């Protein structure tokens, strides 16, 4: 089992999208990587009533793990960037969790698509950011203008950035 460092970014909006990168504490074997297909699992501990009922029904028929250990999981494909750096697509969070944000998920990775032995580390799904006002609304084309954004959903993030077309700029939360 390999340990993972915190993903970057460590949080995204509940609609997912984009990617995250995660670094391994130790290095993977090159022979294993050559025949691997990376799959990412985002596991949320709490489920709605429908998922719990399904889990209970499954548990009763198979006599497997206790129902309390069932959870809601979203999967995505990943890419192996190097022997110690991996990339995962961030899936959307189920709409049933919209009112309970932020939601923490346990991120685990599989090199064979079945056994998730890399990890876990934590990833957070946040409320979507809503921008209500940009001040000043205009500035010079070459940039270098300090702006203020007003709105909701800014708290809870780990890496604040503003994007203007393709250009990104570091931001601070006040």
Biggest pleated sheet: 7 strands, mixed
Spans of at least 5 consecutive residues whose pLDDT stays below 50 are 49-70
- Please give the count of helices: 2
Structural class: mainly beta
User: What amount of the residues lies in strands?
Assistant: 35-45%
Radius of gyration: 19 Å
- Averaging pLDDT over every residue, what do you get? 80
Helix content: 10-25%
Q: What spatial order of strands do you see in the largest sheet? A: 1-7-6-3-4-5-2
Overview of this protein structure:
The protein has 174 residues and is mainly β. 11% of the residues lie in helices and 37% in strands. It has 2 helices and 11 strands. β4 (72-80) and β5 form a beta hairpin. The chain is globular.
Layout of SSEs?
Blueprint: E1 11-13, E2 19-23, H1 30-34, E3 39-44, H2 49-62, E4 72-80, E5 85-89, E6 103-110, E7 118-126, E8 130-135, E9 148-152, E10 161-164, E11 167-170
Parallel strand pairs: 1-7
Antiparallel strand pairs: 2-5, 3-4, 3-6, 4-5, 6-7, 8-9, 10-11
List keywords for this structure.
single chain, two-stranded antiparallel sheet, mainly beta, seven-stranded mixed sheet, 174 residues, 11 strands
In summary, what is this structure?
With 174 residues, the protein is mainly β. It has helices spanning 30-34, 49-62; strands at 11-13, 19-23, 39-44, 72-80, 85-89, 103-110, 118-126, 130-135, 148-152, 161-164, 167-170.
């Amino acid at each position: 089992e390999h340990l993972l460092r915190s993903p970057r970014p460590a949080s995204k909006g509940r609609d997912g999208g984009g990617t995250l990168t995660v670094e391994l504490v130790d290095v993977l074997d090159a022979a294993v990587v050559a025949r691997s297909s990376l799959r990412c699992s985002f596991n949320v501990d709490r489920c709605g009533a429908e998922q719990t009922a399904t889990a209970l029904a499954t548990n009763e028929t198979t006599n497997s793990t206790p129902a309390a250990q069932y959870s809601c999981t979203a999967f995505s494909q990943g890419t192996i960037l190097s022997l110690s750096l991996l990339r995962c697509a961030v899936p959307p969070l189920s709409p049933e969790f919209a009112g309970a944000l932020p939601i923490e998920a346990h991120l685990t990775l599989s090199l064979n698509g079945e056994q998730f032995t890399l990890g876990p580390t934590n990833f957070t799904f946040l409320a979507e950011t809503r921008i209500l006002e940009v001040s000043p609304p205009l500035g010079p084309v070459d940039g270098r203008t300090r702006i203020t954004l007003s709105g909701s959903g800014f708290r809870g993030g780990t890496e604040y950035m503003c994007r203007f077309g393709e250009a990104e700029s570091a931001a601070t939360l006040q």
